[in-house]
Amino acid sequence: MTKVKKVMKRAFSASVWQEGNWFVAQCLEIDIASQGETETEALANLEEALSLHFESPVATIIPQIKTLQVEIGVA
């Protein structure tokens, strides 16, 4: 039996600006950005990055849980 992949669409806002020869597209709702040689390419790359961000993870090996102890300053 084939599993059916559920798909949902959601709209996101993007800020686009030029830095030198590159266009940068940054999602305003989620801290993800991408770039391209054109504004269209930067937005397409951002769309792909967002799709990958929401893709379900598929572990190839079982992840290990680790505990970290970090010194922090107190006020």
Helix content: 10-25%
Q: Low-confidence runs (pLDDT<50, min 5 residues)? A: none
How many DSSP helices? 1
Largest sheet, strands/sense/barrel: 3 strands, antiparallel
Mean pLDDT: 91
Describe this structure in words.
- The protein has 75 residues and is α+β, with helices and mostly antiparallel strands.
- The protein has a domain at 14-54.
- It contains one helix and three strands; from the N terminus they run E-E-E-H.
- The chain has a three-stranded antiparallel sheet with strand order 1-2-3, with helices on one face.
- The chain is flat and about 45 Å long.
List the main descriptive attributes of the protein structure presented here:
1 helix, 75 residues, flat, alpha+beta, three-stranded antiparallel beta sheet
Annotate the secondary structure layout:
Blueprint: E1 14-19, E2 22-27, E3 33-36, H1 39-54
Antiparallel strand pairs: 1-2, 2-3
Would you kindly provide a brief summary of this structure?
The chain is of the alpha+beta class. It is built from 1 helix and 3 strands, in the order βββα. The chain has a domain of 41 residues.
